[in-house]
Design a protein that fits this description.
Length: 342
């Protein structure tokens, strides 16, 4: 074990982060030379991958004509403000629709334009001017990205019935207070939910128990209700850094989640270390007001087969020194490779 002040930064590599650049080789698509009619004249359809159409960086103010047969449509970095209801009239096979970095507004997205896309799986509308979650959406959707907009609400039932949805990005919006309670209820396939960089004051009720990754960093959350995470059997990554958490707002065992691998409570107002499961591996508590180091936060019992699995523990930016660490911690934190104190 090394007691150093070397900052530890964990880069989480996850398969559920979608890559924007389409590579049909990953999906086993057959290559062939397309007919010129299969691509809008202002856009680019790679000769080997004719079902993908790229219309990026063209200063477009309206949608190009999308030919039938297109499955992967990229219209990024343009000036489009709206979508007409007939924009995808002949595009029955569309699976990916990537509209990042435009000027889209909810009031200018007409009718049920997305619901008509019966094969749509991925919808990305990051960096636009949306003020609420778009909808209705097709039941086939598995990934929804709406980060870096101006979203202040999620209308009731807009996500209802999306049983295939596994990923939602809503970070960097203007969600405030307690506007999300019940918004994600029934999304029983949801694995990844990012609500960081908003102005949320309360953890929303009705979160799916299927979640693997849950991010609430950079909000205004001051407490976690008792037994809030009870029933989350597969949750592995939980981030609540840069909030307003205090000891009084954290019940004794609320973070004692047996499936949890990483817990980030850094940049809060904690004075003591919350109790966590012995299975936790990465624990971030830097820049709080912690002034004591109880082993009971990490280990209930210490024995040959009972000890904390923590490998990385950050406590720098607190009121602790090496002298505050009990000698017995070497038995409890026996697999730790890095503990940062200063």
């Amino acid at each position: 074990m090394h007691l150093n002040s070397v900052p530890f930064f964990l880069v989480l590599i996850s398969g559920i982060f979608c890559q924007y650049d389409y590579n049909p080789d990953d999906y086993g698509y057959e290559r062939y030379v397309p007919s010129p009619s299969l691509c809008a004249p202002e856009c680019d359809c790679p000769i080997n991958y004719p079902t993908a159409m790229y219309c990026d960086n063209l200063k477009l103010k309206s949608f190009p004509i999308v030919p039938s047969g297109i499955k992967y449509l990229y219209i990024r970095n343009n000036m489009i403000e709206g979508i007409e209801e007939n924009a995808f009239e002949n595009v029955t096979d569309l699976q990916w629709l990537i509209l990042d970095n435009n000027h889209l507004e909810n009031s200018k997205i007409k009718g049920k334009v997305f619901a008509k896309l019966k094969n749509l799986k991925k919808l990305h509308i990051n960096y636009n001017n949306l003020t609420e979650v778009v909808g209705p959406l097709p039941k086939t959707l598995d990934e929804l990205q709406l980060s870096h907009n101006k979203i202040t609400k999620v209308s009731p039932n807009v996500l209802e019935g999306l049983m295939n949805l596994t990923v939602i990005h809503l970070q960097n919006n203007q969600l405030k207070g307690d506007v999300l309670s019940g918004a994600f209820r029934g999304l029983n396939s949801l694995l990844y939910l990012d609500l960081s960089f908003n102005q949320i004051t309360k953890l929303p009720t009705g979160l799916p128990r299927s979640l693997l990754m849950l991010y609430f960093d950079n909000n205004l959350i001051s407490n976690v209700p008792d037994e809030f995470f009870q029933g989350f059997k597969v949750l592995q990554y939980l981030r609540l850094s840069h909030n307003k958490l205090e000891d009084s707002g954290i019940p004794g065992n609320v973070f004692n989640i047996s499936s949890l691998v990483e817990l980030d409570l850094s940049f809060n107002n904690l004075k003591s270390i919350p109790t966590v499961s012995e299975n936790l591996e990465n624990f971030y508590l830097q820049v709080n007001k912690i002034n004591k180091f109880p082993l009971s936060s990490f280990c209930k019992v210490v024995g040959p087969a009972t000890y904390s699995k923590i490998t990385h523990l950050r406590l720098d930016g607190n009121n602790l020194t090496r002298a505050d660490l009990p000698h017995e911690m070497y038995n409890c934190l026996r697999v730790a490779t890095e503990i940062s104190l200063e």
